[in-house]
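Dig into what follows:
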Amino acid sequence: MDQGSGEYFVRIGVGSPPRSQYMVIDSGSDIVWVQCKPCNQCYKQSDPVFDPADSASYGGVPCSSSVCDRIENSRCHAGRCRYEVMYGDGSYTKGTLALETLTFGPTVVQDVAIGCGHMNQGMFVGAAGLLGLGGGSMSLVGQLGGQTGGAFSYCLVSRGTNSSGSLVFGREAMPVGAAWVPLLRNPQAPTFYYIGLSGLGIGGIRVPISEDIFQLTELGYGGVVMDTGTAVTRFPTIAYNTFRDAFIEQTANLPRVSGVSIFDTCYNLSSFVTVRIPTVSFYLSAGPILTLPANNFLIPVDSVGTFCFAFASSGSGLSIIGNIQQEGIQISFDGANGYVGFGPNVC
């Protein structure tokens, strides 16, 4: 769904009878939430705002419940558990915690702890809320637990196409023939799915960046996170600058234009029918090399032929592999066994 927020949406049913809602797929956070009536402060969404009063299965969570204890920043108001979540980009949601029935196609899941957001603000344009798929106990994956073995697989369809991607839960979703690498865990940030990255390549040549830049330290700093809720991949400044400069060096024949938004490396390709550009590769620590399709790293930013190198510096030691770089590749998380797989399918 193209709402311009850089997010990927999935359509699910909330409540009984199920009300269809678009939800942002976010592997970098844990709480599942929807905007709810009465809305003290809500952004515009494409579906009618969910009204708990119309759902036979909605039940508020009392403060004494163990579910309330599992929420960071939970509070008590009139005997009901309250939650609030702040996201990295300044977006937030605040409201009441509830148990509710969610419907995924033909599958009905009862008693999912969700946030009923009465005060919400941010970059969720069009979506009713957010489907947290992170590694914590309150994410949908965490709540499904034994039913799915912490396993899910997705394929994010390329932007600008009318087809749809997929999101599948359960061990049956784990593909044969994927390139599997170990999932790293950070006790300081159990939500995040970390992977080992040893380096970056441009045009098949490894860029001279120290592997240490991508290491997750024992104290929980640094590391590389896979996140569907972030659009643009970010690397620490020193790594990004070296990586970008190597790309510029190999695209010296293309006309440069000034930067756009967070992108500092852009080109005017309006006069080209086809264009040759160097490949971009991620060297994964366990051995596989993930080479990205061109439209996963050189993306159009307007309708007149301006394309930009779709990476940015993180301004911190953390690297984030965002959804633009994940497009079109089947990505599978096997939480129980601690692996993430790339491929073999595409979408």
